[in-house]
Design goal:
The complex is a heterodimer of chains A (about 200) and B (about 130). Chain A is mainly β and about 200 residues long. Chain A is built from three helices and eleven strands; from the N terminus they run ααββββαβββββββ. In chain A, strands 1-2-3-4 form a four-stranded antiparallel beta sheet. Chain A is globular, with a radius of gyration of 17 Å. With about 130 residues, chain B is an alpha+beta fold. Chain B is about 20% helix and about 40% strand. Chain B has two helices and nine strands, in the order H-H-E-E-E-E-E-E-E-E-E. In chain B, the strands form two sheets. In chain B, strands 1, 3, 6, 7 and 9 form a five-stranded antiparallel beta sheet that branches. Chain B has a four-stranded antiparallel beta sheet with strand order 2-8-4-5, with no helix packed on it. The chains are: A mainly beta (about 200), B alpha+beta (about 130). Chains A and B meet through helix 1, strand 4 and strand 5 of A and strand 1, strand 3, strand 4, strand 5 and strand 6 of B.
């Protein structure tokens, strides 16, 4: 499955990013422009969005981890909004073999927030795309080691990782998987519930 | 400190008024050019808005005590991007957005990376000093 098939042209992001760069060489891969035009230096950071007040229905429907009651270890109490309106007070923390990672709902987006020794990292994707695919955040250490966390929907079925060394099935807990790699070259993730192949970033 | 310098200047050592003027001008120029970053400084900026070749980086020009970097391309796509800084941990995301936050204690240059196999247009934002990472 190509990137074109994965994207499905469902951008509704109003960020002026999609078709703003119509001449970009990847246009053929991005079937979902959102219109508008970007002026150099004027695009607002996704972090400027107002944070949401509640987990959105589509997010609960696709990711049961966001429907479970929160416990004391789930939220991060901050007044700051995350990217795309992500609200850390609504986060769910998932304990994985590679460490804790948070699933954070945003405004039409879902995010993964992973912590490491030097702070934390975020990756976000549109809910409507992630609910049919795999969202990954990969923390690349200076020495080349990579810790990967992934979010898959409830109906993902088995999740497998393919590397040059072979294919293995990954454990999924609360919609989340994790794996440590020496390199992400040639690594990709597939799910039983999707025909897409998702390169590990 | 100012008293100390004034004392030396008044004492007729190596600190003549002319030398102090030259030294002050040099320090001022250095600070104004951003060549010296301090943790007291704060700010954020979009440092990248351009085509980035496959596996290439787009660096911000000036080292800062970074608190975070954001990278974005087409958020509605499944194209991978990375956010980070020179010789620091990078965070990479699979859906056109990634953010990496730092404690703000390392003076380094912000950077984003195109993690895709083709050129893509990318945006990068940096936060530093007391401006917190989103």
């Amino acid at each position: 499955m190509s990137v074109t098939e994965i994207t499905r042209g469902r951008a509704r992001w109003g960020l002026g990013v999609g078709t703003a760069i119509a001449a970009a060489s990847v246009l053929a891969l991005n079937t979902g422009g959102s219109g508008g035009s970007a002026v150099a230096g004027s695009l607002e950071s996704p972090s400027a969005a107002a944070k949401i007040g509640a987990v959105q229905a589509a997010q609960k429907a696709a990711f049961s981890v966001l429907e479970r009651p929160q416990d004391s270890g789930d939220p991060v109490f901050t007044t700051q909004a995350g990217p795309f309106g992500a609200n850390l007070k609504l986060a769910r923390s998932v304990d994985t073999p590679e460490g804790d990672v948070r699933v954070v709902p945003g405004n039409g987006a879902v995010c993964l927030r992973a912590e490491d020794d030097s702070g934390h990292g975020y990756a976000c994707g549109p809910t409507e795309l992630v609910e049919d695919g795999v969202l990954m955040v990969a923390m690349h250490e200076v020495n080349g080691d990579v810790t990967v966390y992934g979010l898959v929907p409830d109906d993902a079925g088995d999740v497998s990782l393919t590397t040059p060394d072979g294919t293995e099935t990954l454990d999924v807990t609360d919609n989340v998987f994790s794996v440590e790699l020496d390199s992400v070259v040639g690594a990709s993730v597939q799910t039983e519930g999707s025909t897409g192949t998702y390169p590990v970033p | 400190m100012r008293h100390h310098v004034a004392s030396r200047a008044a004492g007729g050592g190596g600190w003549s008024p002319r030398r102090l003027t030259v030294l002050g001008a040099a320090l001022g120029a250095l600070l104004l050019s951003g060549g010296v970053a301090t943790q007291a400084q704060a700010g954020n900026t979009m440092f990248c808005d351009q085509q980035v070749a496959a596996a290439a980086y787009c660096f911000g020009g000036t080292a800062q005590y970074l608190t975070g970097t954001e990278a974005q391309n087409y958020f509605s796509s499944a194209l991978p991007v990375c956010a980070g800084a020179y010789l620091q941990v990078y965070a990479c995301g699979s859906f056109g957005y990634a953010e990496k936050c730092y404690p703000g204690t390392v003076n380094t240059t912000p950077a984003i990376k195109n993690d895709y196999t083709l050129t893509q247009h990318m945006y990068g934002w940096a936060y530093w000093g007391s401006d917190p990472c989103p």
